[in-house]
Amino acid sequence: MLSRNYKEKTIEWTLFSVSVLTVVVLFLICLFLFRDGLLVFRDTSLMDFLTGKFWYPTSVNRQFGLLPLFFGSLIVTAGAIIFAVPLGIAAAIYISEIADPRIADFLKPFIEILAGIPSVVFGFFGLVVLVPIIQNNFNLPTGQTALTGSIMLGIMALPTIITISEDAISSVPSTLEQGSLALGATKWQTIYKVIVPAALSGISAAVMLGIGRAIGETMTLMMVTGNTAVIPSFPGGFLASVRTMTATIALEMGEVPQGSTHFHALFAVGSVLFIITFLINLIADSIKKRYQFKVD
Q1: Which fold, 43-295?
Q2: How far apart are CA 283 and CA 220, in angstroms?
Q3: Which residues are 242's β-sheet partners?
Q4: How many whole angstroms separate alpha carbon 109 and alpha carbon 113?
Q5: Tens of pLDDT, residues 235-252
């Protein structure tokens, strides 16, 4: 009995230690980012950084305006959401509720393999295949545009959205579906009025994780968006070259002098990206809890 209690206490303290370690690591990441990021404001003001329209870190009159990078990330991510969310949820519904079990078992491994493909491979595919298609169909000087980046990010986010949404839909109790059908509802009415609302918590989590994948992606966007740090116009901005926050950090961090204003400006960009991702996770958690409450 004493040995059993000792084992339980050991497991409990191990899990507690891992949880504390996770919090400590997150705190250290925040400290690391914000410590170096805040130093940029010794040479530029907060408002100039947040509202500046130009990113010229190496010119004589250096400017570290975040807006071109922020709007570049925003338009690419928005396009990826528009592309991936409807397709991902529709595919999850098909696999879970409509497809023959043999077809579903055939599709699932391919979706999981798609999630494991390195981002640089997606970048090569976009550069060789999608960029010429966009250029020729829209008669553009270059196919490296925000639209190309949105499509590629949408493809990369699809496996996450499909897999988690399919798990959420499959976990809905069969009694709900059977009760709906017994009351005279059709299969489609049962899907969109009973099953999808019951699984909305998991579906919303899948969408948010897909958005997080899109926001944090770097290599693919470096290869297919053109890396032009200008504020895109809406809606025509989808056909313009843009540069995202992640691509800016990846492109410039390797060559920037350590301790320079440019160096700290890149850390400030990373801090903004961290805050945006953190807020998205908070919103996702809030939505998840709200719909869990409604379903329960």
Answers
A1: MetI-like fold (1.10.3720)
A2: 26
A3: 226
A4: 6
A5: 667 888 999 999 999 989
**pLDDT score of 296:** 45
| Amino acid 235: pLDDT | 61
- Give residue limits of the domains in the chain: 43-295
Structure tokens at 289: 């809890």
